[in-house]
Amino acid sequence: MIIGSPFDGQGGILVHASRPPPGDGSLHFDADERWVVGAVPGLVNGTNPHIVSHYSFFPDKSRRPDSELHLTYEFPTGNHREAVKAMSQAFQKWSSVTKFKFHYTRNYENAKLKIGFYRRDHEDRSPFDSPGGVLAHAFGLGNGRLHFDEDERCVVVAVPGAFGIRKVGLREIGHVLGLGHSTVEAPIMRPYVPDGATKDLDEDDIQGIKILYDLMRIYCGIGP
Questions:
Q1: Taking the model in full, what pTM does it have?
Q2: What are the tens digits of pLDDT across the range 126-164?
Q3: 80 domain residue, yes or no
Q4: 110 and 9, same structural domain?
Q5: In a shared domain, residues 200 and 94
Q6: What are the catalytic residues?
Q7: Cα 215 from Cα 97, distance rounded (Å)
Q8: Phi/psi at 179 (nearest 5 deg)?
């Protein structure tokens, strides 16, 4: 590809180079693609130019600024305190694959992320429906609210007939950080979570969050 054409985002042009002399010898890789030294499944490589990923972002690919790498969270007073440990474990999972650090605070009003359990219309313009419907919802980057449907049977650890707070919370935290839904079943960011599900972060979830926050970039230069 000749220099002068901008890269087009993940899934398109992988690399471009300048013309031979009197060109300047530039060789540029698209930093929105996923690159490693050597080929592994799911990564761009020389013999298999592009393998499709299934994660998604919000329409404007928005993400949290570097000033929000440390996020506090809390529940309203008396609102399912037993869920604190489960959510702490979910936050730790995302922290292990990103630059984010999550801190539990006793100050609900000042917490960046406000988590709670609510029924039907709970004054956020997104009422829950009834048991068997929407399990939880989160409001993305500019809001910080993460709500569970109190009419659903939620437990700390998933069992048949009930939903695990940690697993559902794991997915909703992904939304809070900027991930949309995946188009396949394997990732935690899939649209639906069956009862009893004990899923963890999938490689697709991890790849998506690393791409969004530039944690997969490799900078390539030409030596003298």
A1: 0.69
A2: 888 878 778 888 887 778 899 998 888 887 766 677 788
A3: yes
A4: no
A5: yes
A6: 172
A7: 9
A8: -90, 140
